[in-house]
Amino acid sequence: MPDLPFILRPARLDDVLPYAGFLSDPEVSVWLDDSAQRPISTGRVESILLREAWCLWVIEVNGVPAGVTSLYDPDTSRGTARLSIVVGNRQYWGQGLGTAAVKRVLEHAFFALGLRKVESEYLEPNQSARILHERANFTIEGRLRNDAWRRGQWIDRILLSILREEYLARREPPSVDRGAGVSR
Questions:
Q1: How far is CA 19 from CA 63, 93, 161, 166, in A?
Q2: At the topology level of CATH, where does 6-173 sit?
């Protein structure tokens, strides 16, 4: 866990501008979905944060949004969902915030939602995403070769997942501070 305290909370209208700012930062957006490679209007960001999300939380540090994480594309018949995370505030890069947030989301996914599998992906040059997924005990399932165009070249997309039983086998004891968990 990072030394800095954080909470995961539902998105609010006042989160739209900070998140739009994260998406407009080329050092952040370069590793995101292809749709984030073009300018995104604040109206679209508002729709994503407040209306379209299934399970989405703002990562807040000291009262300030540092990023967003979510579970999306739920498939209740298969017991699966996909994970996304964006730590958009560069001040918090490299401090373990993303890994700690993902671990809380996984606990919510497997215990509160009863999922059996959480899937994720990252673009291969993104070493921070690789480390985050390793620390959260995801397993690589595959590679989509030359799948995304970034910085003038085609790069691979890495597909990963974690199963509920894998999570339980490697799980750290829950934190004592339950008030800083996931709120919905």
A1: 14, 16, 26, 32
A2: Aminopeptidase (3.40.630)
